[in-house]
Amino acid sequence: MTLRNGRIIKYENLVIAAGQKQNAQSIKGFDEAWADVDNPFYTNQDHSSWKASTAKGYRVHYNFNGGPAFFYIPPGNFYGELENYNFLISKAMWDQQANAGKLSWETSSFTVINPNKTFCSHFKKVDDYLKNACYENNINIETDLTLVEVRKVLYE
Amino acid sequence: MQTDSVAVFRNREGELVERYYGNFYSMLPTTANPLIADSGLADSTGYLNVDPQTLQHK
Question: What is this model's ipTM?
């Protein structure tokens, strides 16, 4: 293996942990919606433009007071598979808020949009568990949609 | 003037579908790291093809 500085390292086994590259720019309006602290659109990371005190994800999540809610999983391989599948936690927390009268499931919905065939491509038990848990917790699953744009609509 | 937030999706038929939202959590979209994708070791997806049991590169 030759490093950039020309140093040569011999090895018998090599593990490469390069990680994945963020690709928010591949979806029109994604980065703007994510950066906008007033848009209830958030991700599993803080936006680089925020101050440390912004805490948008925490604030948006806890202040959800009804309407259509979505959890989106991008197609293909992605950072945070399973680790960031926190939709069951969201539903449990929002159920508590519904019990307290903060939101109503009569006028709200929660949908996981997963364009992949499974929630976990190499572990069928986990995939089955998550699909069943969504069913038992009244979380919808849609599998044929891929996010292409996020935008705001102005009206009077 | 008021605003609504809209997510636009493409379905399998290629049609655009709009969904208004009150709360939208998205996993960050990612792509293969060019360090791997361009190394000659990756498959057509840009990722290493490994044995899921051992993580050894095929």
Answer: 0.87
